[in-house]
Amino acid sequence: MSTLLRGQTAIVGIGQAGIGEAPGYSAMELLGQAALAAIADAGLALADIDGLFTATSSHAFPTLSVAEYLGLRPSFFDGTNVGGASFEMHLLQAALALQAGLCNAALICYGSNQRSAGGRLVSMSEPQWHEQPYRPRHPITGYALAASRHMHQYGTTRAMLAEVAVAARQWANLNPDAFAHGPLSVDDVLASRMVSDPLSRADCCLVTDGGAACVMVRAERARDLPAPPVYFLGAAGAQWHRSIVAMPDLTVTAAAESGPRALAMAGVGLADLDLVMLYDAFTINTLLFLEDLGFCPKGEGGRFVQGGRIAPGGALAVNTNGGGLSCVHPGMYGLFLILEAVTQLRGAAGARQLAKAEVALVHGNGGTLSSQVTAVLGSAAAH
């Protein structure tokens, strides 16, 4: 895997808006607020942005709509939409464009008012051709199928899945920006209303509003800007299917491909990682990604997370903001993973700040376990 991109670009600004509930604001307004916050955090002006990378659930032509709304005339733009993993892919695309000199300051942004809109956006892009006759509930039916298969094949239990939700809530309780706070036990998860067997309401991500954005520049420029730069070390994507019925193996995701390639580009191994941000739309996601990325053997994810291993104070820091399960999940969550990684690598995470945060893995997921994109970010110490 080429390492030519390693450390050549950096995230220099982050911003968010409307986390949780933001009644009265459109998806575009939340995106705009987050974008302006990220640009200000970078010490730049809107006029400095000449690269635009965005995907939304609301616009068929996202770069056109966002550029018009913000008043941008970008020299390079990309609206790749592979679901929630789009923004990890945008990191790679922005790094390529910056390194090629096609733009000088790249904005990656997203916004959704899904909660205020009554959750009506969740199924806009779901497939209809294979699955519709069976009347699935998108997207949870596909994830429930994967969870059921994992339980059947490897002896995973609902209590093991519940450990993921409990750990996420414990991290959220340390994050004042998280939407869900308060106690949550394994028994609470097991007693929660069943939505799609074996996944209960507590096994499912939140439905929130929220906007998020980050700004990337070349490394030499990053050193002159006010915020501590967080360097792009590597990224890779993989996709094997669109519809869950076409997934080759319900217990193996394309993260098994994207993860090793991203780590190779970054020149790091799993032992070098201080933080792991995984797209936890459902509790089964975390188990599958821990396995496919190599943290434990296939089938051992449920046992791996037991005993608080991924909770605060555990051996592996996973989803330190509270994840999609307890922090925020406005339809497409991938950019919020990046924001938390940057916050930790800057040393600015407050009560949840890790003692050592130099290298972070960020893994995005889109569709029904469909698109998988892994990115590796590092502080100046890792650069």
TrEMBL record:
Residues annotated as domain Thiolase C-terminal: 237-378
Highest taxon, organism lineage: Bacteria
Q: What is this protein called?
A: Thiolase
**Organism field:** Pseudomonas typographi
